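With this grant's support, we have settled on a layout for protein records. A representative record follows, to show the layout.
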Amino acid sequence: MVFLPLKLILKRLDNEEQELRAMGYEFKSEDFHDGKDGRVIELITINGRERLNVIRRYRVTITARGYEKKPTGEIVPRFKHDVYIYVLRHYPLVDTRRYGAPVRFQWITPIFHPNISNGIEAGGLGIVCWHILQQWIPSFTLPKMVEALRSLVENPNPDDALIFPETSEAARWFKRRRGP
């Protein structure tokens, strides 16, 4: 696997962070590198359990109309969502040995969505099923990812739901809402 120099990747991420701030997004970043390489962490993703070489993790707040299911069973709108974005050591390049994209996502906050399992703060796995992970191109940036995640929240695809009880339920709910 070919890697860009870490210094170059971090400079690119710093520039992308500036753009994200200019767009009004709230986020926190945490470096996972030692100046040379990333830290290997284990994460459950759409690929199952993965060992990933992570250089930076972002916690990003996205404002979008989504939904959550309350303990009473009521499904209510939710407008603030948090997600972790893990930037892998081979960013922004495609890793042909794996799922392609040099990023992984983990939903944090509660969500009722066919393509995102309930967030880790709500006791879920926070798995995000998103085709961009298979169709990654190196010009895709942190701001573009966040905008695309916002769009995913607002435009669920119930015909391509994850296979979890809560995502299957969300798929049925969204299909009923859109009608025949």
